[in-house]
Amino acid sequence: MNKNKVQVRIGGASYTIVTEDDSEYVEELAEFLNNEIRSICNANPTLSITQAAVLVALDQADACRKASAGADNLRVQIKDYLEESARARMEVEVARREVERLNREISDLRNRLADK
To answer: What is the pTM of this model?
Structure first.
């Protein structure tokens, strides 16, 4: 895949990012980070850009970990649902065979009664 060089500004500093991602995507990420840093700096003007960036990084690490945990939980739930679905399909198949057996038995009993 082609490498893209993307120029972005975050916290007042310029960065050249070399990535395989679309430049628009990287620019959106940079804008998001820049807005988060600006918001933290506006809320607490005594913080340096570095301190604000660390707080944003901590917040994003927390969000990432929680999202990963949520995704893991969803995977477990999906696995459980698939196992439950497989069990239900097996139960349906067993019930279908039992219905067929009972229908044959009914048919046999009707034939015996008709022969008498």
So the answer is: 0.69
